[in-house]
Amino acid sequence: MLSVQGLKAYYMTRHFGVQREVRAVDGIDFEVLRNEIYGLAGESSCGKTTLIKTIAAAWKPPLQIVAGSVGFTFAPDILRLAPAELARVRWKHLAYIVQGSMSVLNPVRRIRESFVDFAFRHLGVARAEFDRRVSAHLARVKLDPGIVNAYPHQLSGGMRQRVTIALATICRPEFVIADEPTTALDVLVQKDVLDMIREVQREIGSSVLLVTHDLGVHAHVADRMGIMYAGRLVEEAPTRELFRAPRHPYTAHLIASLPRIGDRTTRKPLEGSPPNLAAPPPGCRFHPRCPLAMDRCRAEVPPLQTIGAQHRVACFAVNA
Amino acid sequence: MSDSAPLLEVDRVSKVFTRGGLLSRERIHAVNDVSFRLEAGRPEIFSIIGESGSGKTTLAKMILRIETPTSGRLSVRGTDVAHIHGRRAGLAFMAQVQPIFQNPFEAFNPLKPLDHYLFMTARRFNGAADETAAARMADGALLQVGLSLAEVRGRHPHELSGGQLQRVAVARALIPRPRLIVADEPVSMVDASLRMAIVNLFKTLRDELGIAIVYITHDLATADYISDRLIIMQRGRVVEAGDARSVLADPQHPYSRSLKSAVLLPDSLTPAATPA
Fold it and tell me: For residue range B221-271, what is the model confidence (pLDDT) as tens digits?
């Protein structure tokens, strides 16, 4: 459904004649299959938002695509589409749920008007039929169709997030990108919204690229997962396998350090902090914090290698 | 202040906010009749768990004297917080009860170097006479959180990671040698690989420095990991209270149960939630 190959996207800035590049996405290959939820995890500033902006062809300077390609089944080379073609693809085939639902919903327009703004031209139906579909779709995400007359501020955070999910899925897009869709929500609402995303995804048979730092969220809904560290993918596996048998030392640490109710064994923190992407360490970017680091890790970049069914790891210690 | 009095006593405290004008006045019970007590001489980590709107932050603000209770009594080591007046008494209170906030990037002024805050705290609360004395106190506090003044001096908030910055915030709170730290969602903005370092730090403060901690959170898992006792709040009221381990192992109130069932964790992978 989606194929990303050798993608590199850097922020290029120039201050007082000094060129500076921040390698936010530095060589990423992965695929998202039809009808699956692919979870992308990583800490803040590991490049995950940059990656999905690029995939959605929503990048702008100073971010530049340095190498690689992004292809969807409906848009084989989305990075080179003309703006008019891109506008046709967006929302009908590719929907993007950005972080923070309030920023998508226009605060001075009623929910009904937001639906018209986003989806009317893509659906190509008469206004009465459009209104009927909006009502039916809102009911599907368990919202009262009457809320079309409300303004965003009159709705709770959970309701607003459901509205954005309804907005993103009303055209039955083949591909949905969701960036931290539940981060600002209360725990009880979060679970509802995730179940909702899963339900809608199954019903319309789309693929979802779900991006969040919260491993609990991935455990709950993702079919497969990729773990990003400092601009690169370090591990990828089916969710269950990743939690059961993580191979990369970074993944293993993240999973071992998750607090669990009833388990009070002391969690060891990871030494150091994530690298500065303007001056990343040579070789494997995790080596300064890695308990298994060898000489080779300081010099060479470990490739992402297949080690089992659908399981890929970028680590010399594992692939040796 | 007496040594036998409880460190913190919250006695039937309520906070009511009023909203609206003359005709449509609305009263909101942000905190409704909450009582608990932390004993002196037995430092513990006490968690206040709740979702947004549960009143947990309002309660924290009342403990910190940022808000005044509408009714009820709040006392720290036998002194009624409502009877603290004037700058000197205020400072004496603040030296004993220190805050740590949710977002370290908002707690520090981005334009000022971090050591400025540490030195200012040392001067104000510990009466550090000059820069050397202040630097010594700042360095001592930073060492307790695994940093040093050399790493922090002259640096601005954006130069540190969220985890490091939150440790600087903890170090700042340690300078006045407080008896109690009130931490409002201290790890929710910190990355996963650094989060446990902060949480472990709270345990160290309790065990080695004898500081009691009021840990405010919506995250049941970290609360279970570090706290001795807890209360669970819903719309301003305490719905469940007790020993952290037993409450979280077997919550009794329906609201506590629903909170626990909403925890998303790998062990909660059920056939319904995983791909067919």
Answer: 899 999 999 999 999 999 999 999 999 999 999 999 999 988 887 554 433
Residues A137-191 have pLDDT tens digits of 888 888 888 889 999 888 887 888 888 888 888 888 999 999 888 877 788 888 8
> Is the Cβ of A185 closer than 8 Å to some Cβ of chain B?
no
pLDDT at A142: 82
* Stretches in chain B below the pLDDT threshold 50: 268-276
* Domain membership of residue A267 as a residue range: 249-320
Residues 98-157 of A with CB under 8 A from B: none
CATH of the domain at B225: 3.40.50.300
The reply to whether B3 falls in a domain is no
- ipTM of the complex, rounded to two decimals: 0.79
Cβ–Cβ gap A187/B266 under 8 Å = no
Q: Can you read off the two tokens belonging to residue B139?
A: 């360095």
- B173 is in which domain, residue-wise? 8-20+40-263
pLDDT digits (tens, 9 = 90+) for A265-286: 888 888 777 888 888 899 999 9
Q: Give the chain A residue nearest B245 (alpha carbons).
A: A262
- In a domain, residue B195? The reply is yes
CA A99/CA A183 separation, integer angstroms? 8
Report CA-CA distances (Å) from A251 to A135, A137, A190, A260, B17: 43, 38, 24, 17, 46
Chain B environment of A238 (Cβ under 8 Å): 275
B26 is a domain residue: no
Nearest to A274 by CA among B9, B191, B219: B191
Q: Do A266 and B161 touch (CB under 8 A)?
A: no
What is the number of domains present in chain A? 1
Q: How many residues does chain B have?
A: 276
**Residue B64 placed within a domain:** yes
DSSP string over A151-197: -GGGS-HHHHHHHHHHHHHTT--SEEEEESTTTTS-HHHHHHHHHHH
Q: Is residue A255 part of a domain?
A: yes
Chain B positions touching A187 (Cβ under 8 A) are 51, 218, 220, 259, 262-263
Asked if B51's CB is within 8 angstroms of A264's CB, the reply is no
Token code pair at residue B129: 């006479």
Is B266 close to A267, i.e. CB distance below 8 A? Answer: no
Chain B positions touching A271 (Cβ under 8 A) are none
For chain B, list residues whose CB is within 8 angstroms of any CB belonging to chain A.
Answer: 51-52, 161-164, 191-197, 199-200, 218-222, 224-225, 245, 248-249, 258-260, 262-269, 273-275
Judge whether A216 is closer than 8 Å to chain B, CB to CB.
Answer: yes
Q: Is B245 exposed, middle or buried (0-12, 13-18, 19+ CB in 10 A)?
A: middle
Name residue B36's amino acid: F
Domain count, chain B: 1
